[in-house]
C-alpha cells in the first residue's frame, strides 16, 4: 500500500511537472512568436514613419505620386517601393540598420522570403508583410539559403551598379581629357597674346626711333 501510494505520488508529481513544462514551453513559444525579427520590425516602422511624413507632404503637393518619398508602401498596401536607392542608402539605412549597403538590405529581404515584383522599380512583396497588419510579422520566418544561391534581382542590382560605376569612370576620363585640352589651348592663346604684345612694343619703338620725334613718343606711349 505504501509503495502504491508512493507510486501514485510520483505519478502525480510527474504529470504535474509535465503539465507545467508544457505550459512553460507554450508560454515561451508564445513569447518568441510575439516578437518578430528586428529587421522586419525596423523595416515596417520605417515605412510607417515615411507614410506619415508623406501624408503631411501631400497637403502641399497633390500632383506628385510619391511626394518625394524615399521609400513607401505601394498603392495596394501589400508591398513597398524604394523610390531612391541612393538616398535610402545614404539617409535611412545608417539610421535604422547601422550600414549604408543597399545590396545587403536586399539580401536580408531575400532571406525572409521577399520577392522583387517589378523590373522597372525596386518594389518588394511578402504575403505576411502588409500595411496595417504588423501582427503578421511574427509569421515571417528566416529561410535557409544555400551559399550558392544568388537572387536574380540582387544579381541585376550588382550588374547595374557595376555598369553605372564603369560609366561614371568613363565620363570622368573624358572630362579629364577635355580639361587637359582646354588647358593646352589656354596656354597657347596666352603665348600668342604675349608674342603680339611684344611685337606691338617693338613696332612702336621702331617708329619712335626712325622718326626721331619725341612728341610721337608722347603721342604713342608704350602701354
UniProtKB/TrEMBL annotation:
Which biological process annotations from GO are given for this protein?
regulation of transcription by RNA polymerase II
Task: Enumerate the subcellular locations listed in this protein's record, separating them with semicolons.
Answer: Nucleus
UniProt-listed Gene3D superfamilies: Winged helix-like DNA-binding domain superfamily/Winged helix DNA-binding domain
Recorded superkingdom: Eukaryota
Q: Can you supply one Gene Ontology CC term for this chain's record? A: nucleus
Reply yes or no: does the keyword Methyltransferase apply: no
Keyword Nucleus attributed: yes
Boundaries of every HSF-type DNA-binding domain copy: 35-143
- Say where the protein is mainly found: nucleus
Coiled coil residues, start to end: 172-199
> Which key words tag this protein in UniProt?
Coiled coil, DNA-binding, Nucleus, Stress response
Q: What InterPro entries does its record include?
A: HSF_DNA-bd (IPR000232), WH-like_DNA-bd_sf (IPR036388), WH_DNA-bd_sf (IPR036390)
Single GO term (MF): RNA polymerase II cis-regulatory region sequence-specific DNA binding
The entry assigns this protein to a family as follows: Belongs to the HSF family.
Q: Tell me what this protein is called.
A: HSF-type DNA-binding domain-containing protein
| Biological source species | Cannabis sativa
Organism placement in taxonomy? Eukaryota, Viridiplantae, Streptophyta, Embryophyta, Tracheophyta
